[in-house]
C-alpha cells in the first residue's frame, strides 16, 4: 500500500464529507442539492469500506490525524466566500468517482 496516497485519500474524503454537509446548510438551493448528493456518496458503503480498511491497516491514530487535516481545511473554507465556489463540489465529485471505481470491488 502507498501510505502517502492513502493518507491523502482520507484527508480528501473527510474534506468532501464535511464540505458537502456545509453545502446542505447554504441558502443557495443549487448548492444545497449538490451538497445532499455529495454527502450521500461520502457517507455511503464504498467510503465506509475505505475507512474500515485504513483503520485496520494503519490504526485509529493515523486515521484520525489524516481526517483532522481534511476537516480543518473544510472548516476554513466554509467560513469564507470560497464555500460558494462550485469548483470544490466538482473536485469532490471527481474524487468520489475515482475512489468508487477503485474500491467498488474490494
Explain what you see:
- The two termini are 14 Å apart.
- The protein has 106 residues and is mostly helical.
- It has one domain.
- The chain contains 5 helices and no strands.
- The protein is globular.
Give me some keywords for this one.
106 residues; mainly alpha
Question: What is the tally of helical segments?
Answer: 5
How many distinct folded domains?
1
The number of strands is 0
Shape: globular
Describe the sheet with the most strands.
Answer: none
Measured as a percent range, the helix fraction is over 70%
What is the CA-atom radius of gyration, in angstroms?
A: 14 Å
How does the helix and strand content classify structurally? mainly alpha
Order of helices and strands: HHHHH
Distance between the termini: 14 Å
Strand content: under 5%
Which stretches are low in confidence, meaning pLDDT under 50 for 5 or more residues running?
Answer: none
Mean pLDDT: 95
Summarize the structure.
The protein has five helices and no strands.
Helices, strands, pairings?
Blueprint: H1 3-23, H2 29-42, H3 45-58, H4 60-78, H5 86-103
Amino acid at each position: 500500500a502507498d501510505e502517502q496516497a492513502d493518507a491523502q485519500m482520507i484527508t480528501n474524503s473527510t474534506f468532501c464529507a464535511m464540505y458537502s454537509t456545509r453545502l446542505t446548510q447554504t441558502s443557495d438551493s443549487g448548492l444545497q442539492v449538490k451538497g445532499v448528493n455529495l454527502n450521500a456518496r461520502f457517507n455511503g458503503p464504498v467510503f465506509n469500506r475505505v475507512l474500515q480498511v485504513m483503520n485496520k491497516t494503519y490504526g485509529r491514530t493515523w486515521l484520525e490525524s489524516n481526517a483532522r487535516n481534511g476537516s480543518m481545511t473544510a472548516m476554513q473554507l466554509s467560513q469564507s466566500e470560497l464555500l460558494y465556489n462550485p469548483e470544490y463540489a466538482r473536485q469532490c465529485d471527481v474524487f468520489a468517482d475515482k475512489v468508487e471505481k477503485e474500491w467498488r470491488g474490494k
